[in-house]
Amino acid sequence: MYEPYVTAQYYLTKYQGSTIPENELGRYLKTASRHIDSLTYNRIVDQGFSNLTDFQKEIVQEVVCRQAEFEYENAEEIASVIASYSINGVSVQFGNSWNMFSDKGIAMRRDDYSFLCQSGLCCRLVG
After folding, report:
1. Pick from 42, 101, 115, 122: most CB atoms within 10 A?
2. Burial label, 57 (beta-carbon count in 10 A; 0-12, 13-18, 19+)
3. Is residue 122 part of a domain?
């Protein structure tokens, strides 16, 4: 059975998160962990979370928490099949932009993706 990289206890105490209601926390942490797996080319799954360096673990757990909150706060927009819309001169676009990153169908804040890249797990090169 798949275990997310962050437990509810970690999110609530160490990360000190409060955005996601406790009854939905497990689902969002699991989904965010799966998305991190996709963005890291399943390298964490391959080598095992416990085999990462402490530095890598800290980054992955921080990004999972941030991503879970992002996905919770933007659930309707993420689930929408519309890439952009405009109403009365105000437009909203979901995808790559100066502050958004999108790859493999996963949207996240660009600064969070950059932070995840510091783990060395996002490199597109084989190996």
Report:
1. 101
2. middle
3. no
Please report, as a single letter, which amino acid is at residue 9.
Q
* 32 domain residue, yes or no: yes
* Tens-digit pLDDT profile for residues 88-126: 776 665 555 568 888 888 989 999 999 999 999 998 876
pLDDT surpasses 60 at 82:
no
Domain contains 101: yes
Q: How many domains does the chain have?
A: 1
Give the domain range for residue 42: 8-117
Please check whether residue 3 lies inside any domain of the structure: no
- Taking residue 22's Cβ as centre, other Cβ atoms within 10 Å add up to 10
- Cα 71 off chain centre by: 8
- Is-contact 72 19, C-beta < 8 A? yes
Instruction: Give the global pTM.
Output: 0.85
